[in-house]
Task: structure prediction
Amino acid sequence: MRVLVVGATGRTGGELVKQALVAGHEVVAYVRRPEAVTAAPGLTVVGGQLGDEATLAAALLGCDAIAVALGNPISKASAPLMQIAMPAVIAATKRAGVTRVVVLSALGVGATFANTRYPYRFGCRTFLAGNFHDHVAGESQLEESGLDWTTVHPGPLNDGARTSHPTIVDAATGYQMPRAPRTTRADVAATMLSMLTDPSTYGKQMLLTSIQR
Result:
């Protein structure tokens, strides 16, 4: 499989690139700063801005799927990001003939707020609210895009090791996530990578935590 990763210089995106290469996939890293990416066999680096539809579409040629693993730094947590990136991603995939899109979101975004419990729910309503608004503004555009999309909604992220049996559930089931649903970036990367070829997740918001059920 050849997959384009948007956000490859971030901690989660970097882990996704690493796992994809180890699994033998070809990876195109679409980044704003190509010099920040270390060369590796099977890796192609393309420089471009998030809203640059033409450059993104060119980078997508020959790809089977696109994984979006974007995230703002804490200092700019509420700055527009997904609402800028998603229109370009949607348009570029259509130009390049790519239909599979997996997007990193967060637990509590949009309808997945119903899957949260306190104390995490309190954060969704307060200091995470601005960031979540940006996610909704971008991700809601997928619903009418005609693409085979999936959004992945993990709990608070950390840099721990990959776990053997993370909890992965369709948000539409109404499943209530743990009160403190900590999730490793390694589990997020592995989940996104597996979902790229999993049609059972098309059009779904998938919950994720490293805590086993």
